[in-house]
């Protein structure tokens, strides 16, 4: 029996893993963040455990065991399998490992996924029409109509002919990159132990709950009913969430910083420290060290809160720029 594993989604910074395939025949494997695993899943934020899980092969069957800290999720389940628990892998099984989405396919013999269900049709294949009427003329008509709807005039024939393909590629790229940003936002919320998006009966945003850009496109444009938001509404909501996240993160950072600084105000410390063992010696006779600290704090306060605020922003800006530089360098390295 052959086990084929495909990486469908990967964390931010590990995009080179997407599309990678791994194959195992009549044998088990371990998977996780550590290099000692059979399947190594890099994860800068360490949502993937060093050894996240184990797959055993016995009597022609593959069984997966959860050995993780943050949970192993099967086939879109919102509840993890649970440490020590196991589940048999079917012909096709989706496993969520941290921010990774892995597709496990079990097949007989040496041909991977030979008996797996046929893949879903691409979004374009969902449309049914008479191919005999789909001529070069209709392609040109479609390109002209698209150009007019976009307010484009005076295009050359070659540019006009390539317009539908370029717009399609742009749409797919836009959706894919928006999903990556939403994934990074989701990772931050997980790190802060905050609630994340869960699938509902209706009005789901396909950009937040889909594994790939193609899945999101199919759900937004080809699915009927009210399970998913319309395309434009989904994209607008996604951009609003991304913008709100940026503003909220900065505001929360400043608020927490101000609250931490306030805890070191002399009178606040005097109210808390006397109860501690030996703290009385610190304040007895207005000790020199304490007096120096009080004078320093008052000097800073006399210059206004802006001076402390500006110092924080200066350091924050430097750290932000350095991390941004590292991310861009990493992206350029993977692009080359």
TrEMBL record:
It comes from the Bacteria. Residues 29-79 form the FHA domain. InterPro entries: FHA_dom, SMAD_FHA_dom_sf, T6SS_FHA, T6SS_FHA_C. NCBIfam families: VI_FHA. This is Type VI secretion system-associated FHA domain protein TagH. It comes from Parahaliea aestuarii. The lineage of its organism: Bacteria, Pseudomonadati, Pseudomonadota, Gammaproteobacteria, Cellvibrionales. The gene is tagH.
